[in-house]
Amino acid sequence: MSKFDVLTIGNAIVDILARCEDNFLTENGIIKSAMNLIDAERAERLYSLMGPAHEASGGSAGNTAAGVASFGARAAYFGKVAEDELGKIFRHDIRAQGVHFETKPQGKFPPTARSMIFVTPDSERSMNTYLGACVDLGPEDIEPDVVAEAKVTYFEGYLWDPPRAKEAIRECARIAHENGREVSMTLSDSFCVDRYRDEFLDLMRSGTVDIVFANKQEALALYETDDFELALSSIAKDCKLAAVTMSEEGAIILRGQERVKVDAIAIERLVDTTGAGDLFASGFLFGYTAGRSLEDCGKLGCLAAGIVIQQLGPRPMLSLKDAGIEAGLI
């Protein structure tokens, strides 16, 4: 019997969300719909330009852990924060979701990471992230017993930016596989794929990673092609299991020669796409660790993603377990 269903590892970030017009992005040199890495000075500058803002604990893998817990499963998280106000907010929020989080905080500098997220009228989000304390996540922050006792260890591709995090991930993969567990990753975004394409492919082809999550743009970027069918067939060959999301077109799940198409859920109003991929992963992994069919896993992922894009912020404000029961999926 495992102690945890899903362990996620990622950059512990507090999201600061505000609405803006498209011209604001142009005027301030922000790449739309991407995660832009920034330094402390630019972080202060962008924060000063933001309109009314909403603060929420975020970070891709943290959002996924919160989603897993909202489904009623057992979730754990590794991520580095500082001993400051945003660090306290992050620790409180993720624990309040029922997620095991015991990574030791460091001192006050560098400060806890924050991401200024600008949401344009089309509901697309453009992230500007100062990694701060995240860059100090290393092998010493691993809890080996938690890795050994988690059915799936999931990490975000963004972790390939801070150098010591790579060591931590590889050690977690070693521990997980030695204990008969599986390892999963999300490609995070197409710019992240461009930075680390060869390393990501090596993780998949070497068997270090068993399950891969990607959206359509990331899958195309991974194989440097405009042919989506080629990207799908390639990713199916390169990893044990892949889930590729396609926004309003749903998702495709691939395992060997098996391919399952799942439709997106109908929504009343698109509010903010922040966290859509993170929550898809939470629903999918909830179903996967419970032994559900690939179709059910995909439906649970689409349900969670569909719910989170109808609210502001990346973590579900209502119980995903209740939503799953109402939808007949739990």
Automatic annotation (TrEMBL):
Q: Which UniProt keywords apply?
A: Kinase, Transferase
> Where are the annotated coiled coils located?
none
Q: Is Disulfide bond included in the keywords of this UniProt record?
A: no
The cross-references to SUPFAM superfamilies, in alphabetical order and at most eight, read: Ribokinase-like (SSF53613)
Q: Is 4Fe-4S a UniProt keyword of this protein?
A: no
Q: Which residues form the Carbohydrate kinase PfkB domain?
A: 54-316
Q: What is this protein called?
A: Adenosine kinase
Species annotation: Rhizobium helianthi
Q: Can you tell me which family this protein belongs to?
A: Belongs to the carbohydrate kinase PfkB family.
| InterPro entries, per database record | Carb_kinase_PfkB-like, Carboh/pur_kinase_PfkB_CS, PfkB_dom, Ribokinase-like
One GO MF term: kinase activity
